Amino acid sequence: MLFTTNLISVTKGIISLLQNPSNILSVYDIEDGLKESWLQRLSLQYVKSDRATAQIIAQRYLAASPCLETLLKLPEDSLGYHYATHLISLNFDPNFYRSIQVNSDTDYLLLRLRQTHDIWHIVTGFGVDGMGELQLKAFELSQTRRPLAIVIILGGLFGALFSSPLSLASLWEEIVLAYNLGKNTRPFLAQKWELAWEKSLLVWRQELAIVHSLLD
């Protein structure tokens, strides 16, 4: 029954996402459906192979919801200021993501990824449009082996095949570049971003060794 329920959730989410790529609830349906899968277990095993990430998972480090007005008082080059202006420009609440009750390492991993999703956007420089989301998912796949990333990437390629087949080559190139960027960047999951909101975005990128043309 558990497998059937998960399969229904994943299928429902994929169909809904293909119909409306901007429906974030569909993304959560897919990931919730994959939570008990062997792919998700492999993802957890992979991220825990990094000592610093394994320590954060063991600590169950989660940050309190930030006050955007407070972050706006930080220097304009800081991560916190960039994060606040980013969310305000999108009219997003910091707690927009679907929450998860943390009863396992997998629960923690998924919640932390959801909690820091927009921080990853800011630090990588990937946009929040369709292309940017696919780039970030490729980056995530490289860093975490997250099964949701595989589904989203395949969905993006599938959609492009029917809507704009001539764009497939350039789309695939961007996905590969983003994947390689993630492979050569220090683990994002090992970072306690919220303890250093005041640190400049440039310094964060330098410390994480993240360098690509979007940041030039």
UniProtKB/TrEMBL annotation:
It comes from the Bacteria. Keywords: Membrane, Transmembrane, Transmembrane helix. The chain crosses the membrane at residues 148-172. This is Ubiquinone biosynthesis protein. It comes from Microcystis flos-aquae FACHB-1344.
